[in-house]
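Async update (no meeting this week)

Hi team, since we skipped the sync, here's where things stand on the single-chain job. The sequence we agreed to prioritize is pasted below, unchanged from the tracker. I ran it this morning and attached the output directly underneath so nobody has to dig for it. Comments welcome in thread, and please keep replies under the output.
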Amino acid sequence: MPRIDEKTIVSDIKKAFNSLPCCILRKRVPYIKGDPDFTGSYRGKRIEIEVKTIGGKVSSIQAKRIREWQALECICGIAWSLEDAINIIWDDLLPQDKKMLAKYLPEVV
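Output:
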């Protein structure tokens, strides 16, 4: 399996998530050390996603930031691929939202 660079993973996640209704996902700019790469909302629930390449390591500050968002019951996690990002949001969705996501991303889901 060829190694995919972080820029490609970021682009794929942004394109997929922003194609969904009721979803906005933005690359965090300016970036503050430790904050997840993406911030956004899906149907009013906060999303925070840190993107890594395969083999990429999560720093202690990044892990701490994700735990802070998890404590606030946000949808958040670490994604090494588009599929990982979808799995992060997938576990928090209602059944009807899963059907909607599958409709918009059939090649991935």
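Quick observations from my side:
Helices lie at 6-18, 60-71, 82-90, 95-104.
The mean pLDDT is 87.
Reply here if anything looks off.
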